Amino acid sequence: MAKNRFLIWGGNIKIFVLLSIFVLTGILPVALYAKDITCSAGFNYYYWESTKREKGQQFYTPISIEATLKDFTFRVLAGYMYNYYDVQGRDSHDTDDILDTKVNLSYYAEDILGIDVLLGLDFNIPTGRTNLSDEDIDALMDPDLVPITTWGEGFDVNPTITFVKSWEKIVVGVSGGFLWRDEYDYSKEFEDYDPGDIWRVTAEFRYYPTDSWLLRLYSAYTWYEEDEVDGDDFYEPGDLLEFGAGIVYERAPWRFSMAFSSYFRDKDRMETAAGNIRNEDHNSYGDEFLLRNSLRYSISEKQSVFGLLNFMRIEPNGYSHEDKFYRGRRQKAEAGLGWQWKFARDYRFQLISSLYLLHDEETADHPDSNRTYRGASIRIGLTTHF
Predict the structure, then answer these.
(1) Which H or E element spans position 214?
(2) Which of 22, 80, 114, 175 has the fewest C-beta atoms under 10 angstroms from its C-beta?
């Protein structure tokens, strides 16, 4: 009984902290003067199991508030997460906590010498958990099994700038950003962890041949500075190159979209016995390809149904099959259905359910056998606009 009272009290404290975050960030005072406010809350549940008797669950409840004041937009996103991971029916781990809070600020300037400019300034507020215990780390799961893979990080600042030029049927955009990441204690073994800063540039080309069709091409390049632990260089991820293309067809009551993305990562730089970092012998990442498809049908002005069909393929990395760093091919297929309903005056309810199948060849985590994972998810969201 005492345990139940403690859990209820602990849950109330977390809810209080979560609500306080919105007040302290200042978005609620700003919202009082805004003419366009959007509030949303959700409940997301993910479940998976493998052919080796592993299984896991993740609950995630996001809450967000967005306010627009003339050309300025303010948004706060916070959430709570529970993870459960069972290792082959022998050893289970579970942890729950609130996550880091995201604060997004943006300003849109239209037609400056014929170019539209979007300025962004994003913050990661470290309200989540750091200095992780072994139990906290063991409860984290693969990003292809569940969407959230971290409990918390340090204070981050991410300024971005985007330039957009439009013609009659063509739109071209370029953007650049810099993510400054502050030091924090990742775990008991990795205190004073200073993740490297991240730089990113993107370019996108859009062509509208008719009112119903959109053709899209994009590319991006991301490079990373070295991570440090106790002031010493520890690790540096390889640069990431992205290419993608997509099409959109929209003519009432139908909307169809298809997007293809490809990812190519350079070699990581790893710590050596001498205490410095150098390029790894082979590339530990295989090339990744992703195909996303969605189809929406509007039943009426208030209701619509939609489906999604996604495919992912990651090629084997550069190490030989006998090497301990070898990671084989990974393939994933996901299918889902959804329903959206607008009711009352300014409320929108959305329900999405999906299933996936993921096949994983030998990796460092399971070097002696392939594994197949089956997963399911249900996502419920409620949004109001006033």
Answers:
(1) strand 213-224
(2) 114
Q: Which amino acid is at 211?
A: D
Look up the pTM and report it.
Answer: 0.88
Rounded CA-CA distance 332/338 in Å is: 20
Neighbours of 371 (CB within 10 A): 17
Backbone angles phi, psi at 371, to 5 degrees: -140, 145
**pLDDT tens profile 292-335:** 999 999 999 999 999 999 999 999 998 888 888 888 999 999 99
Q: Indicate the Cα dihedral angle 46, 78, 152, 54, nearest 10°.
A: -10
Q: Is 70 left (phi over 0), alpha (psi -120 to 50) or beta?
A: left
CA 207 to chain centre: 27
Sequential DSSP letters for 74-142: EEEEEEEEEEEEEETTTEEEEEEEE-PEEEEEEEEEEEETTEEEEEEEEEEE--S--SB-HHHHHT---
Q: Are 42 and 380 in contact (CB under 8 A)?
A: yes
CATH number at 133 reads: 2.40.160.50
Instruction: Write out the H or E segment, with its range, that includes residue 5.
Output: helix 2-24
Number of domains in the chain: 1
3-state class (DSSP) for residue 336: strand
Length of the chain as a residue count: 386
Residue range 86-106, pLDDT digits in tens: 987 677 889 999 999 999 999
In the numeric block, the tokens 């997963």 are attached to: 375
Predicted confidence at residue 325, as pLDDT, reads: 84
Q: Report residue 230 as tokens.
A: 């106790």
Query: DSSP characters for 44-76?
Result: EEEEEEETTS-EEEEEEEEEEEEEEETTEEEEE
What range defines the domain where residue 323 resides? 2-385
Residue 221, Cα to own-chain centre: how many angstroms? 18
The sheet carrying 277-279 orders its strands as 193-194, 227-229, 232-236, 269-271, 277-279
